[in-house]
Design brief:
By secondary structure, the protein is α/β, with parallel strands linked by helices. The protein has helices at 8-14, 51-56, 92-107, 110-119, 142-151, 175-178, 201-206, 224-232, 253-256, 271-290, and strands at 2-5, 21-24, 38-41, 63-65, 83-85, 134-138, 157-162, 170-171, 184-187, 212-215, 237-240, 260-262.
Length: 302
């Protein structure tokens, strides 16, 4: 069985599985030969240049196993007969940790103090604080749960929102009523047609003065122009690991907007994710070869 894997490390953990022939393709450089025989594709974290074209030429494809939680790049182009599985759980620790760090960085004004440090200035002042805040988690999946576990101990109130309401979790329809009560709003929803532009001007206008928007989802979940307007007015602050457009081009107004802390989509890019990713790849391929049900199959409920 021919598999395209993104890294040598993945080829190594699969190397003793029977009948598996791995080709490493990290999306840079020339595409390897034999694309029409690829049965399983594990695309790289920073994906290949032409996902639709690549998928269209994979005529033997049965499984796309992503190393990402998000599958927005693959889902609309999946060929008939192929199954799509995501890396649910792999990035929980890294992304949740980033979100905690990012909200603290903004509330405690670390980026401003870093600027002052570079200038050699002692800029004493009071700052905001996470303690006693209400943190609204929009997209309460496995990363949201990991975030809540990490927030335990910061003396905050966590409010949970998911696509549909369940015990202890509000439905998306309740968002307008919940936004005005939140000091920090964390976006963790998958990018789907339903969540495109979710944080639009109306959403942002319902956030309270001085609140912080944290985006660890996808750039397209936020209306960038609407966010820029709120940042420029000084009413809201933000921590963004993802942007629209992405990568954020040099000179884009978001770079210089006040009150925004930007990282280049790195929340899940850590050794913790790598270790979990390798465990998942081995487990999934073992299941696949044994004809057992796979984990993390993307269905309409994604
Ligand atoms: C990262 O962005 C992911 O989707 O896992």
């Amino acid at each position: 069985m021919k598999i395209w894997v993104p890294y040598e490390s993945v080829a190594e953990v699969l190397s003793d599985l029977p009948g598996v022939a791995c080709t490493v393709y990290d999306g840079t450089g020339p595409e390897p030969d034999g694309i029409e025989d690829v049965e399983v594709w594990i695309p790289p974290l920073v994906t290949v240049p032409d996902v639709p074209g690549t998928l269209a030429r994979m005529r033997s494809l049965r499984l796309v196993q992503t190393v990402t939680a998000g599958v927005d790049a693959y889902r609309p182009h999946l060929p008939e007969g192929a199954v799509l599985c995501n890396a649910r759980g792999v990035h929980d620790a890294g992304t949740a940790e980033w979100a905690v760090g990012a909200m603290i960085a903004v509330l405690r004004e670390f980026p401003g103090f870093t600027d002052a440090q570079r200038r050699g200035e002692w800029t004493y002042r009071h700052t905001g604080v996470l303690a006693d805040s209400t943190v609204l988690i929009v997209g309460y999946g496995s990363i949201g749960q990991a975030l809540e576990r990490r927030l335990d101990g910061f003396e905050v109130e966590v409010v949970r929102v998911a696509r549909s309401a369940r015990e202890g979790v509000h439905g998306l329809a309740e968002l307008p009523a919940l936004l005005p009560g939140a000091d920090v709003v964390v976006l963790l929803v998958p990018a789907t047609p339903d969540t495109a532009g979710l944080a639009d001007a109306a959403f942002l206008s319902r956030m309270k003065d001085g609140a912080v928007l944290v985006n660890a989802a996808r750039g397209g979940v936020v209306d960038t122009d609407a966010l820029l307007a709120e940042l420029k007015s000084g009413r809201l602050r933000a921590a963004l690991d993802v942007t629209a457009p992405e990568p954020l081009p040099a000179g884009h107004p978001l770079w210089s907007a006040p009150g925004v802390f930007i990282t280049p989509h790195v929340a899940g890019s850590t050794p913790a994710s790598d270790r979990r990713m390798l465990r998942l790849m081995r487990a999934q391929l073992t299941r696949y070869l044994a004809g057992e049900p796979l984990d993390n199959v993307i269905t309409d409920a994604y």
